[in-house]
Amino acid sequence: MFEAEDLCLISTPAWNIDASTTPCTCSDFCPDGNFVAYSNQPGVLSIVSTYFGEEKNRFTQNLTTFPLTSCHFHPSEPDFVLTTSKDGFIFLYNYESGECPLLTRHLGSNLLAMCIDCLGETFAIACADGSIRLYDIENMTRTKALVKMTQRVATSQVNNIYSVVFHPEDSNIIATAGWNDRVFIWDIRSGNPERYIAGPHIRGDGVDFRNDCIVTASAREKKQIEVFDYGTGKKVREIMWDVNRANGSCTVNTLKIARNGLDLIVGGIGSPYAQIFEFTSGRIIGQTGKMGNSISSVAVSPYGSSFFYGTENGDSACQMIRVKPK
């Protein structure tokens, strides 16, 4: 694994996307890192080349004009990408054929976040009523609803869930978080949260796993980027936003770690920059170019060599990191 001082962020973006006047609400890299999915227009999902920014496909539909809240490529069938809208529509697209072979809709509450398990068999949606709904991805049928048990009474998590993520190796484990300053660790088999981590204040897609660690991006002035031990829930270390480099603070609320654990990208409200850190040491690798507004969505390629970031105005860019020449 490379050290932070061995890596450099190429200052010029590989490509840019013009502002759309509506936020970039979600983004994701495909499993081989060759394509990026993103949405910066309500109800519209675009697939572009990682290296040149050329549009591979653009999916529009006439069922909803609400923002897309999440998008994720299928982990083992990379031609497929799953996306969800705020008003509950769930679409499975094939970006090679341009078709939408499956769709369904969750009714009853707004849909705030979504994730797919490591096997690509199940996906989870986080709803505005605080519940988590599990679906079979092959036929888009709901299989289970998770709610928190309090004194033998089933209740939903009181506050909105803004981030939901499966454990990268155990499809029975889900982490969820919102603005109630807790990260809940759920076991699908029992249907209940087994424990929680107190402290993180999550206001976006700001929770991720890496090996036996949970990493959080909290929307607050201090203790913003924290690493916790998954087993004990104890804080391991903290990664500091570089205020001097960014010429100001940032209320971080979106974070993604490369699948190989090399690096992570963080962004948020109040700063037109995203910052990239080496995960193991927490040292900063670099900072993106200045954007037109606060960062609203970030993604990192599986090998940690490419980064996508979009803003509240919809303008987006992709930058690369490389090993410094000896």
From TrEMBL:
PANTHER family: CARBOHYDRATE BINDING DOMAIN CONTAINING PROTEIN (PTHR47822), F-BOX AND WD-40 DOMAIN PROTEIN 7 (PTHR47822:SF2). InterPro entries: WD40/YVTN_repeat-like_dom_sf, WD40_repeat_CS, WD40_repeat_dom_sf, WD40_rpt. Keywords: Repeat, WD repeat. This is Uncharacterized protein. WD repeats lie at residues 154-196. SUPFAM superfamilies: WD40 repeat-like. The keyword Oxidoreductase does not apply. It comes from the Eukaryota. The keyword Repeat applies. SMART domains: WD40 (SM00320). It comes from Tritrichomonas foetus.
